[in-house]
Amino acid sequence: MSITAFLFDVTPVGGGIGIVAGIAFFLVFAAAAFIAYKILKKSVKMAFRMVIVAIILLIAVAGSISFWWLGSSKPTRPERPKVTQPK
């Protein structure tokens, strides 16, 4: 019984997963912004291209920050119920 309690008392490992996911998310969207910039080079004016690239990079930064923040936060331990002894 006590071995099972020790097993479930440990917090899960995975603090670096959020950072890696955030970096990967940013790199994918940065590549998409670069490709969009190159594709729109001949057909759209510079200001409109920069707006599109800025929107894509804004999404990339927001997504990577959210992955980093949610993935690297340390979970709190649940409160243990108080032991009551019958009188």
Helix and strand topology:
Blueprint: H1 2-9, H2 15-39, H3 46-72
Helix pairs in contact: 2-3
What does the model show?
By secondary structure, the protein is an all-alpha fold. The protein contains three helices and no strands. Helix 2 packs antiparallel against helix 3. The protein has a domain at 29-73.
SS content category: mainly alpha
Beta-strand percent range = under 5%
Largest sheet: none
Fraction of helical residues: 55-70%
Order of helices and strands: HHH
Distance between the amino and carboxyl termini = 25 Å
Ranges with pLDDT <50 over ≥5 residues? Answer: none
Number of strands: 0
Residue-averaged pLDDT, rounded? 77
Shape: rod-shaped
Radius of gyration, whole Å: 23 Å
Number of helices: 3
Question: Could you name the key traits of this structure?
Answer:
single chain; 87 residues; mainly alpha; rod-shaped
Question: What's a concise summary of this model?
Answer:
The chain is mainly alpha-helical and 87 residues long. The protein has helices spanning 2-9, 15-39, 46-72. Helix 2 (15-39) runs antiparallel to helix 3.
